Amino acid sequence: MIGARGARAIGRLVREAEQILGAPADIEFVIDAEAAPTLLQLRPITSLADLPELPGSWVLERDHMAGPFSRLGATLMLEPQNRVFPEALADLGVPLRAIELR
User: Fold this and answer.
1) 18 lies in which domain range?
2) Global pTM value
3) What are phi and psi of 27, to 5 degrees?
């Protein structure tokens, strides 16, 4: 297990790789016994998977996010937010039964 320190080191490596390329990067790395990552390969991402078109409307809320969730962000955030928002809205007296983030 890499732990928080190792995860931060991997995050720094990914950000540095993207700065070098000036675009999202596909990287390969290894982790040593102290959870320090070493870059093996770096290349630009040439194609991203097409996501299915979802029904309904959406708004890109740029005050808190510059773009859509990543797949990891969606996995970690969307379901908990969709579960909590109705109760939070009710506590605030907002006359809205549901809100669904996708």
Assistant:
1) 1-46
2) 0.44
3) -120, 155
